[in-house]
Amino acid sequence: MFRFTVPQITYEISGVRIGGQPGENPPVLIGTIFYHKHKIVEDASKGVFNRVEAEALIKTVEELSDKTKLPFMLDVVGSTPESIVKFIEFVAGTTKAPILVDTLGALDVSKAALKYVREVGLVDRVIYNSLTAKSKDEEFKILQENNVKSAVYLLFTDKIMDMNSRIESLEILLKKGKEFGVEKVLVDVFVIDLPSLSVATRTAIEIKKKYGLPVGSGAHNAISTQRKAFKERFGVEGLEMCELASNLMTIVMGCDFVLYGPIETSKEIFPAVYTLYTAYKYLLRRKELALQL
């Protein structure tokens, strides 16, 4: 639907192409594993988990990716140095997909994770998730020291409904990231609730229009941060549909990736995005229907 006049950047990370003009590459679907209170995790601090169930979840995503031809990455969360290393080791040995290293902003965990990544030769497969405009130099240095050159820039802002504040955060991050050797940037436009989803999505369009960078978000946060209220109003199935709709909104508007939430949600998100993307490709064949931005 959209066609940007500014040249669009495409990165290749471990065989997955991300970015470009809408429709040029399929959107990348990123599910989270070992998240807070994930039922397959038996001891979050020690990194003890049900390996059979974890492998089954990943294999399901691989099968869905094969069926739909939609690429995927995995967001691997760890809250301690011990657990994050075990989780990365398992995921890297189970799938060849790119890995987002998600340390929840804990520097000791980041140090352990990226040191391990460097030592075992996974640098080209990982993306650090994430850096914000408030991240200190020490966190950037951890990436630099371990030769990690790919990162998610999260455009966190206290001004939830302000697009310009998000763009200002990106400019800060681009400047600092360049100093510390970050070369491949995925921009997370920051969704925290339902009202912010609209602002974030509008920001994503503006960033592609101005910078040409790959954009996306954890769009499911629009609903998941208010799960109780949505569940009480619509029930479990209604809640799930609300989360799916929030994820799909970003894809419809031309985003390059979506952090769709728990890996279990893959069974809904892959068929839904396949439907949208297939329709989108037919639309793009009729070039007169594209909107120039």
In words, what does this structure look like?
The protein has 293 residues and is α/β, with parallel strands linked by helices. The protein contains nine helices and 14 strands. The protein has one domain: Dihydropteroate synthase-like (TIM Barrel). 47% of the residues lie in helices and 20% in strands. The strands form four sheets. Strands 4-7-8-9-10-11-12-13 form an eight-stranded parallel barrel, surrounded by eight helices. It has a two-stranded parallel sheet with strand order 1-14. Strand 8, helix 3 and strand 9 form a beta-alpha-beta unit. Helix 3 packs parallel to helix 4 and helix 8 runs parallel beside helix 9. The radius of gyration is 18 Å and the shape is globular.
Lay out the secondary structure.
Blueprint: E1 2-3, E2 10-13, E3 16-19, E4 28-33, E5 41-43, E6 48-49, H1 51-68, E7 72-77, H2 81-94, E8 99-102, H3 107-119, E9 126-131, H4 137-145, E10 150-154, H5 163-179, E11 184-188, H6 194-210, E12 215-217, H7 221-224, H8 227-252, E13 257-262, H9 266-285, E14 291-292
Parallel strand pairs: 1-14, 4-7, 4-13, 7-8, 8-9, 9-10, 10-11, 11-12, 12-13
Antiparallel strand pairs: 2-3, 5-6
Helix pairs in contact: 1-9, 2-3, 3-4, 5-6, 8-9
